[in-house]
Design goal:
The chain has helices at about 20-30, 40-45, 95-105, 120-125, 140, 145-160, 175-185, 205-215, 225-230, 235-250, 265-285, 310-315, 330-340, 350-355, and strands at about 30-40, 50-60, 60-70, 75-80, 85-90, 130-135, 165-170, 190-195, 220-225, 255-260, 290-295, 325, 345-350. By secondary structure, the chain is α/β, with parallel strands linked by helices.
């Protein structure tokens, strides 16, 4: 229940899905919701959907927001810009709803929607998407071993200095990162890769490496799926990897991601492998599905990375599992496209450049 702009109680709207949560979300970042109208004609345009038209108070006036909040038949909540008829991105849980809301109401909007938040505040929201990544060997980077170690240490330091969501590094550097982050009292998370880069290890090898990384202080485990087993029809091995690897991670309170290596798959295979992972997780860990990501790429397979189409395909069948796009993201435009396609997290070696708004070339992860 809430008051509309005339001060009257809107009893007819009490039972609308997510109503209270949506009002709280706007309030949480400083916007007072004055009224919400169900957009009734949306069902004719998008079967099985409903939408809200949101009015908030801004500079003493009540103004309409430049987007609708849509809810589809599966209770998936997302934003849509009705001027451009453009879907702005999926929202998978209330935490991510708040993060995306803050981002969408960021400082550069036309007319009365020029936000009063500072650029620093908006950039903080952008950083919450970014997994700052360095997974190259010295040979891959064209560096000496000493230079490559220095580059990894600099990646860790830069993530802490700029408060990125996470730093993604190889297993051998997790303990170093844990020590540095803890000494600097930082909230930056540590992610590492398991069975990298080809995912061909046995299930027990995957679980053993994961346990080592948990003991070393990793917060998030990015497993490489045995996508070759999947392609060859060895689903017993593939399924057991997902079941055991996910279980050990969730048991210890870790975020789990499964890299499907989109560059090695056909579009149909991307759909099928994503659907299979989602099914295994939902059948065995339904209450923790939001903590298990499906991730596009290692960045090591023929230097391929995420594409908009692949992210859209993955999201279309992932259910409650969020999507991470990795590789192929070099600037803010790329970041926005991945978010709009459905990615909640983005792995990139260009995190600092993206944060600073720099244009970079496509030479990197």
């Amino acid at each position: 229940m809430y008051l509309d702009k005339e001060g009257e109680v809107q009893n007819t709207k009490q039972n609308l899905p997510y109503l209270e949560e949506i009002v709280d979300l706007f309030n949480s970042i400083g916007y007072i919701v004055e009224d919400i109208f169900p957009y009734e004609s949306v069902a004719k345009e998008l079967e099985g959907h409903m939408a809200y038209d949101i009015y908030v108070k801004l500079d003493g006036d009540v103004v309409n927001t430049p987007f609708y909040i849509y809810i589809d038949g599966d209770q998936d909540v997302y934003w849509r810009d009705y001027d451009r008829n453009e879907r702005l991105g999926n929202l998978y849980n209330l935490r991510d709803m708040r993060m995306n809301l803050s981002y969408i109401l960021g400082p550069i909007k036309p007319g009365s929607w020029e936000n009063k938040k500072s650029l620093k505040e908006q950039e903080k929201d952008i950083r919450h998407y970014l997994d700052s990544t360095y997974l190259k060997t010295a040979k891959q980077a064209g560096l000496t071993k000493r230079e490559n170690v220095a580059a990894i240490l600099d990646t860790i330091k830069t993530a802490v200095d700029n408060n990125f969501k996470l730093v993604m590094i190889r297993p051998s550097f997790v303990e170093i990162a844990r020590d540095y982050i803890d000494k600097n009292d930082s909230d930056v998370l540590i992610g590492t890769v398991i069975d990298f880069p080809d995912g061909r290890g046995t299930t027990s090898e995957k679980v053993h490496e994961a346990m080592e990384m948990i003991d070393s202080g990793a917060d998030e485990l990015d497993y490489v799926t045995d996508y070759i087993a999947f392609k060859n029809g060895n689903l017993e091995k593939f399924n057991e990897d997902i079941l055991q690897g996910t279980g050990i991670g969730l048991k210890h309170g870790k975020i789990v991601k499964w890299i499907i290596e989109t560059g090695a798959l056909t579009k149909e295979e991307i759909l099928e492998i994503s659907k299979l992972i989602s099914s295994i997780v939902m059948n065995n860990f339904p209450s923790e599905a939001q903590n298990v990501f499906i991730k596009t790429s290692t960045g090591a397979y023929n230097e391929t990375g995420a594409t908009i189409k692949d992210v859209q395909l993955m999201k279309s069948v992932s259910g409650d599992l969020p999507i991470k796009a990795s590789g192929g993201v070099y600037n803010r435009e790329d970041l926005n496209k991945m978010i709009n396609a459905g990615a909640t997290r983005v792995g990139t070696s260009r995190a600092l450049d993206i944060y600073l708004g720099k244009e970079t070339d496509e030479n990197g992860y």
